[in-house]
């Protein structure tokens, strides 16, 4: 819809206000999927900061609240948004999931699925660098395995950091 062009004209604070006014963080998931389809068709593309705000407003609360696998609608919306705006998506959503304390089994599975199936190689490397910024845990090792399972070539500095981190932190992990 032509009305969505306003998203490209809003300042970050205006966009956050608009998202709050429209209650995008709590809209039904089938409408979320439709909204994401409209975002994919939007030209010009959203700015990085606008996409980051929308990633947070549309998905963060939903993903952090998962206690079971995401619905078909939510997963489709995540994949569609991620297909066009993967950098801001990873910086906002994946980073928040990785920083979350506790088990976070569904969130970890979701990140692994996105890594395995829809992230571009540079975003896979971004996810790995984000994992290596926080203390390793059993759940984060699953994300590392998903990244390595992609068999993408890692930049030498990222590979060195991975080896160093694994050698330093592996003794603290009990079941892996």
From TrEMBL:
Domain Fanconi Anaemia group E protein C-terminal: 1-176
Any matching Pfam family: FA_FANCE
Listed GO biological process terms: interstrand cross-link repair
Top-level taxon: Eukaryota
Gene3D superfamilies per record: 1.25.40.480
GO cellular component entries: Fanconi anaemia nuclear complex
UniProt cross-references to InterPro entries, sorted A to Z: FANCE (IPR039685), Fanconi_anaemia_gr_E_prot_C (IPR021025)
PANTHER family listed in its UniProt record: FANCONI ANEMIA GROUP E PROTEIN (PTHR32094)
Name listed for the protein in its UniProt record: FANCE protein
Lineage: Eukaryota, Metazoa, Chordata, Craniata, Vertebrata
